[in-house]
Design goal:
Layout (H helix, E strand, L loop, with lengths): L2 H6 L3 E3 L4 H20 L7 H22 L2 E3 L5 H8 L3 H20 L5 H23 L1
Antiparallel strand pairs: 1-2
Length: 137
Amino acid sequence: MDWEVCVNKGLVKEIKIDNKLINCLLNSSEDKVEVCDRLELDKTSCSAKILLVYDSLIDVLKSIGIRNKVMICNHECFPSFLSEVCEEPEFADDFIRFKNIKNQISYYGKQVLLNDARFLINEIRLLRLKLLNKYFG
């Protein structure tokens, strides 16, 4: 969904920059990564770890949105935010892939193989770190 559609449908709301909320979201993101690190990766935990690290990425994306004076209320709008507002189309492509896998796990019960989970978790964490470094240095 392109950015203009997100705005016109009310899926993005203009807001004032809220540094307290940004810090809260960034702390939440860090907490989720820390919990993920504490969990052993096995066939029982791999889907939960993927969802947890994905949620940590969402917190970072919301924080970037708030810095840009927007509250993004729908995950479908993050790719266009990354591509059109942040001018990071490669990040948008990665996010779409992660979102699709997350949805397959959450809504369709997809089972993820251990090695695939390990790789995916690392990829999501890498995107999260790239965004943190770029926008919060």
